[in-house]
Amino acid sequence: MAAIGKTVARDERPLAVRMAHAVGACSWQELTPEVLAKAKLCIYDLLSSALASADLPWSKQAAAVARANSGGAARGAGIIGTSDVVSVQDAAFANGVIGHQLVRDDMHVGAVSHLGTVLVPSLLALATTKKVSGKDFLTALVAGYEVGGKIGRMILDVEVSKVFRPTGITGPIAAAAAGARLLGLSPEQTAAALALGANSAAGYNEWAATGGSEMFFHTGFAARSAVTAVQLAAEGAYASRTAIDGEAGILAAFHKSLQPAIPELFADRPEILAVFFKPVPACNFAQSPAQAALSVAKRKRLRASDIERVTVHVTRAAALYPGCNVSGPFEHILQAKMSIHYNVASALVHGDTAEGNYVPQQNADVLQVATLVRLEIDPEFTKAFPGKQGAGITVHTRAGDVLEERVDDVVPTNADGVRERFVAAASERLGQKRAKELDRVIATLETVTDAGELARLAMLGAA
């Protein structure tokens, strides 16, 4: 991908202004086939997670709030997998929540963020406010990943991620950039949207210890804030151009400086290509440990009573991320999905990663094995992170066997797998005919004249 909007060296303009010009210069013609294919997969991935989650408790809670706030709006945007039409802001909120329910949504490791779960709902909502083409939608999506990836790399590290929710920081800024590009805002308006997005960054990681559901709502808050930021900027709202890199901006809040090593937008490999799709419906840091455990289980099926102890070798980031280094007790599904101990135990006991495995009250054997798991920080895996997320597992059995497996990096769900998950979820929720229509629109999105069709087809009822 060619350098888009790349500025000259030592550009002294505020970062929001530089980013705004790069976002505005991002054009459809610059999207390579690889980038285009990845952008479509990101849409498939978000919709598959959302359509499979519409009946989960947190999805219903978010939808209920959206309906109540919108007062039965006849005009607005739809909630994925339902027949509800609500305000644009409430649709972004609800869909941001619904898309995050399975904890399976796409992952940008460098930013430690689920960017697609904020970007796609925001763009779906805004696409109902103005007729935009599929090309505009895809270009805006790529621009959003670019901004979110770069902001995340500047701010998120092990220490910040121990307290602050990464997606709550990167999401509003990334989606504000995407929304501004979608609606064709000027560089001045886009800079204001980015600044307002930076001012709405929020989210803390206390939920990881308690199993609290606030994690599910972080993405919804971010999407709603981003949509509002874009709309305010379009109305002429002024915001500090130095809100990102000023003396009292978001970088300063996290004690980060604007390092020369951080490249300009689109100056190197597009950030969207750094996104991967989870094979396991659980925390990012549990992916490779679970895959290593699955490999062991395929070689030798074990009962809980067979296992004496398990050692899991992980990166420092994995060991220190909230909720990951926990052996119990587990009362809530989210605690189970975050814990590396629980994920490894579940993979060893069940030999798969089915959703039912993550209900602690129904998995006594998994709870037993989780108490036998210990984490060790591995220097080699740590050095390779975030470029790679390796993990190793050593299982000692009561019979004296030692079973080992090493995974140098997560093996992501491939394009066929992402699309298969989408077809399964869409067919079950929307019916096969509607699922095929939606699949066709995503696959040929660059030819679609009205991207709002995406949002309409993702709903129940007539398109």
What does this structure look like?
With 463 residues, the chain is an alpha+beta fold. It has 2 domains: 15-276, 2-methylcitrate dehydratase PrpD (Orthogonal Bundle); 284-407, 60s Ribosomal Protein L30, Chain: A, CATH 3.30.1330.120. Helix content is 51%, strand content 7%. It contains 21 helices and 8 strands. It has helices spanning 15-25, 33-51, 57-70, 88-98, 116-126, 134-155, 158-161, 166-183, 187-199, 207-210, 214-234, 250-253, 287-299, 316-320, 333-338, 340-350, 364-370, 379-384, 415-430, 432-443, 452-457, and strands at 77-78, 85-86, 107-108, 275-276, 307-314, 373-377, 391-397, 402-407. The strands form 3 sheets. It has a 4-stranded mixed sheet. A two-stranded antiparallel ribbon has the order 1-2. A hairpin with a 6-residue loop joins strand 1 and strand 2. The chain is globular and about 70 Å long.
How are the SSEs placed, and which strands pair?
Elements: H1 15-25, H2 33-51, H3 57-70, E1 77-78, E2 85-86, H4 88-98, E3 107-108, H5 116-126, H6 134-155, H7 158-161, H8 166-183, H9 187-199, H10 207-210, H11 214-234, H12 250-253, E4 275-276, H13 287-299, E5 307-314, H14 316-320, H15 333-338, H16 340-350, H17 364-370, E6 373-377, H18 379-384, E7 391-397, E8 402-407, H19 415-430, H20 432-443, H21 452-457
Parallel strand pairs: 5-6
Antiparallel strand pairs: 1-2, 3-4, 5-7, 7-8
